[in-house]
Design brief:
single chain; 2 domains; 7-stranded mixed sheet; 3-stranded antiparallel sheet; 14 strands; binds pyridoxal-5'-phosphate
Length: 379
């Protein structure tokens, strides 16, 4: 199986392909690639067993996670620090319900993956947002804005690192400063790092996990991880939290109540295989994504007459395109007329932007870019 292969997904119950079948989809963050052979084999083996009763995280999975955290982050975890969950978004909501009371505030930076802004509602909390700012050609935090936004009611800061949709992989200084800010204000830091294994040039922009913070700062931190984005198994629904502080962990776990379903018994086996046997596939994926990213940069520079602006994409397979030089109020809506389905920036709290998913065969990337060009330049 090559990343160049175009696998037909229409009619497979795919939200990306079947929600609006009349459009060509480059929106939601799942890739069009098959998962690594090791993951598919592990699933086939588990399915062949034929019995699908209630699961527990089995020994192989627990070991695979501990080994992953140790080799990827040089972080020694205790098995008890891991809380298994059915997805990251439920985990964000759970954090809000565990640590916020109605009327409290949840702080996050925009533009951002939409649930960051909406999960506060699950706890009756209010969302307060501060826009990311551009500094030296890179998106970063508005430190003054954060200082001003934090109040005695602010209980949680949701961090997205690497950042979706900006594609930023924040530095150690930035993450440490965020963590120190949270600690000084008595705000719990929740760091969603689901895109951390999709850093495109790790030598240039190394990933700094909240797990790399000092022990003191880690005591005020929940880290959310999953193999779901990297190995394209989001449809199996699995994520986990690493929580070192036992009282935070206890509160987080008990807030689950009866609101979280059992975790999918297949997902555990897929996660184990991805972490244990997926690394060489991941490296191949990253080199393919780098080429797709370069195709996009080249296209924006040469074909779009400087009318689309994109940041350097340091991580993710998502290109955040600033289309504000065009007169269209809603570029994503406009592109539907050219048959294209991209994410509308306003869902991320940035109008006149689109997010283009390049986790697909390069021929498909080129097709999508062609439609962007004809849709925006020729209308
Ligand atoms: C930053 C971030 N967090 C969470 C998710 C979704 O996670 P899950 O499918 O596990 O709920 C996404 C999906 O795009 C994401 O980009």
């Amino acid at each position: 199986m090559s990343f160049d292969d175009v696998i037909l997904r229409r009619g497979t119950g795919s939200i990306k392909w079947d929600l609006r079948p009349e459009l060509d989809p480059y929106w939601v963050a799942d890739m069009d690639f098959a998962s690594p052979p090791a993951v598919i084999e592990a699933l086939q083996k588990r399915v062949a067993h034929g019995v699908f009763g209630y699961p527990i995280p089995h020994k192989g999975l627990r070991e695979a996670i501990l080994n992953y955290l140790s080799s990827r982050f040089q972080f020694k975890t205790k098995v008890d620090w891991i809380v298994h969950l059915g997805g990251l978004v439920p985990a964000l909501s759970l954090a809000a319900r565990a640590f916020g009371e109605p009327g409290d505030e949840l702080l996050t930076c925009t533009p951002v993956y939409p649930p960051f802004v909406s999960v506060a509602r699950d706890a009756g909390m209010k969302t307060v947002t501060v826009d990311h700012v551009m500094s030296g050609g890179r998106w970063t935090f508005d430190w003054e804005g954060l200082e001003q936004a934090a109040t005695a009611k602010t209980k949680i800061f949701l961090l997205c690192n690497p950042q979706n949709p900006l594609g930023r992989c924040f530095t150690g200084e930035e993450i440490t400063r965020i963590a120190e800010f949270c600690q000084a204000k008595g705000i719990l830091l929740v760091s969603d790092e689901v895109h951390c294994d999709l850093v495109l040039d790790e030598e240039k922009t190394p990933f700094f996990s909240a797990l790399h913070l000092s022990e003191e700062l880690r005591q005020n931190t929940i880290v959310l991880l999953s193999p779901s984005k990297t190995y394209n198994v989001a449809g199996l629904g699995y994520a986990y939290a690493v929580i070192e502080n036992s009282s935070i962990r206890g509160k987080f776990k008990s807030a689950r109540g009866h609101t979280m379903p059992e975790i999918n018994c297949l997902a555990y086996y897929a996660a184990e295989a991805a972490y244990r046997d997926g690394e060489s596939w991941r490296q191949d994926l990253l080199s393919y994504l780098r080429k797709n990213r370069d195709v996009i940069s080249e296209f924006v520079a040469t074909e779009m007459q400087g009318k689309i602006v994109i940041p350097d994409i340091e991580a993710t397979y998502l290109a955040w395109m600033d289309c504000s030089s065009f007169a269209f109020e809603n570029p994503a809506g406009h592109l539907e007329k050219a048959g294209l389905f991209v994410s509308d920036g306003s869902y991320f709290r940035a109008k006149k932007h689109i997010r283009f998913n390049f986790g697909c065969a390069q021929s498909r990337v080129l097709e999508g870019l062609g439609k962007i060009k004809s849709g925006l330049l020729n209308y």
